[in-house]
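User: What would this chain look like folded?
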Amino acid sequence: MEEVFEKIFKLYDNDNDGFVDFSNFAKILSKLEVELLANYPIQRNYATLDINNFPDYTLNELTSYIQNSEKFASHKKECGEFFEKLDEDKDGIVRIEDLKSNQIYAVIFNDISKQEINLEEFTNILIKRLFQTLIDKQYK
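Assistant: Here's the prediction, encoded as structure tokens.
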């Protein structure tokens, strides 16, 4: 999933130094439809970092912020609920056989060679595709 965030991060890393300023950090979050929380520690620390003349954000900070956001948590919950519906035999694994009658089959298994996936893999694939779609929509 980090490669999806890296793609948009590089678009805003104007001098290719591995950092974006707060303004671009906020723009990236907006493009990904992730809320910028006023009480999030990264934002509170911005003032302190600015005093030290190092107010910029790295890809790791962006990824951490997104993965700790309410939007990400909401998507994970929705993926879990969807996974439970697809896991017909309730064994914690979704197999191709479980998906044969479902349109999501092509989306989930398009770029992986596995014949089955667990909840974590399922969630990562769907959330990655969601953010990739948001990025593609912004830049096409």
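The chain has eight helices and two strands. If you want, I can go into more detail on any region.
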